[in-house]
Amino acid sequence: MKKKKATRLLSGHKIYLCDFTAGKLDAKRFVQMWRAAWKRIPLRYRRMIFVYWRSLPAYDLGFAPRIVVTFGGHANRVTKGVIEGVVFITTGEMAFRSEILGIMPDEIYQSVLAHELAHIAHRVETKKNCPEWSWRQWNCRELDDAVSGRWFDVEENEVRLLQHEWGFDEDQFCEWENANSRNIDNAMRRGRRAKLKEMKQFSTRVLAAPSL
User: If we measure between CA atoms, which residue out of 21, 19, 8, 183 comes closest to residue 105?
Assistant: First the structure.
């Protein structure tokens, strides 16, 4: 069986797409949208993001950052709503939901990718101004303030301003999300059903396997 080749997102750099959707993602379109969004980000911020990525222990091995796309994801612990994307700053992982990306027009798609990249740039810049902070301490702050939403609201507002500086319209995304709430709900339900079906099929195969 031929081994599937990893999809490189940026030429000349060890940034790869991890597709965990079992063929449900339009990987070609994801790469196009990623590269288009990346080119729109000012060079200063792209360099800032690369400095962070190269600081990850597994970067040279090609295991970090992981740009992950899943199908049938979960709700955000802070907003209790849709996760179009999320970034885990200590591991360098960025995760997106294919069932939501799949119904987005190109501009909204790129805006979602840029939003998560803006989180990285924002935290790198904040750490530069506050060198005593570590990524681990930052995540503790995130967990402590998650319930009240204090940290979430502050960072999200600053990230939106940064995103606007890059030329991405967050208001346009919000308008699209409000206008397409039914389509989004339906896509999420399809994702959950597909995930449950996949889990049941896996359980059936495990139970049917001969015992050692």
Answer: 183
What pTM was estimated for this model as a whole?
A: 0.78
Q: Could you read off the pLDDT of 90-120 as tens digits, one per residue?
A: 677 888 888 888 899 999 999 999 999 998 8
| Residue 1 belongs to a domain | no
The answer, yes or no, to whether residue 179 has pLDDT greater than 50, is yes
Total structural domains within the chain: 1
> Are 69 and 21 within 8 A, CB to CB?
yes
Domain limits for position 172: 7-208
> Residue 138 corresponds to which tokens in the numbers above?
């930052």
Residue 109: in which H helix or E strand, if any?
helix 106-129
- Is residue 2 in a domain? no
Q: Which of 41, 178, 55 is nearest to 114 (CA)?
A: 41
